[in-house]
Specification:
eight-stranded mixed beta sheet, two-stranded antiparallel ribbon, 29% helix
Length: 244
């Protein structure tokens, strides 16, 4: 009996759904129910068709905590094979995207798949006590960098034992410094999915002097200092420096 392209497509779609549901089950067991609607990135609809962002009231982590997370970087159809060029995004008065136009094309080179690694190998999250759009700005920056520019965030985190980036825009003319590191307890460090072992990365906002301290003392020392200070991997805008 021959296998048709329709049969192969059906199997791929069924496996994709298995991965999605497994990831959803892990998230809901650790953080709380996912919202009904995923937040799509309009400029990446043709690049990341099954992915998006979630803003989750993380009742299982703490009454006042929220988790903002990517959801789909570990999909079976990742790494992305499509990119977009000449992208133009229309925004509203607050700078939020309301529409986008661009040209889809196949990437000249595609990141190789890594055995045992689902898609890009990770999902990225921000934990905060604040409800707002700024965590979504940060996640969009990271996803665009990964899917369109193949920056290899997970590989950089492993190589440099964390990743620091200065002055990322969060709307309204504001910007923050960020530190990306593997999730630490009480957060889960990752999950087993049908397509491999997923690493959970956490993006944490840091102050200017904490950024400079990390350059001098190293990123592992920054992570330990954040954990020991009680700040942990929870992001708070305009907080007092732990070094003060």
């Amino acid at each position: 009996m021959s296998i048709t392209s329709d049969d192969s497509r059906d199997r791929e779609e069924a496996f994709w759904q298995q991965v999605y549901e497994a990831r959803q089950a892990h998230y809901e067991a650790q953080f709380g129910p996912l919202p009904n609607d995923i937040l799509k990135m309009m400029n990446l609809v043709g690049v990341w068709p099954g992915g998006g962002l979630y803003a989750i009231p993380a009742t299982l982590l703490g009454d006042s905590l929220r988790v903002y997370t990517t959801f789909g970087l570990t999909n079976p159809d990742m790494p992305a094979t499509i990119t977009v060029s000449n992208s133009v995004t229309q925004t509203d008065a607050q700078g939020r995207p309301i529409g986008t136009q661009g040209t889809l094309q196949r990437k000249e080179s595609v990141l190789p798949t890594v055995p045992g690694q689902p898609g890009y190998g990770y999902e990225l999250m921000i934990v905060t006590r604040d409800e707002g759009d700024w965590p979504l700005w940060l996640l969009q920056w990271a996803v665009n960098a990964e899917l369109l520019n193949d920056v290899g965030i997970l590989e950089r985190v492993k190589q440099y034992q964390g990743l620091t980036v200065e002055q990322i825009g969060i709307g309204g003319g504001n910007a923050v410094n960020i530190f990306i590191a593997p999730a630490q307890p009480p957060l889960p460090t990752g999950f087993s999915l049908p397509n491999g072992e997923m690493t959970l990365l956490v993006m944490t906002t840091i102050t200017d002097d904490e950024m400079q301290w990390a350059l001098e003392q190293g990123r592992p020392a920054l992570l330990q200092r954040l954990l020991q200070s009680g700040i942990g991997q929870v992001s708070t805008l305009n907080r007092r420096s732990m070094l003060a």
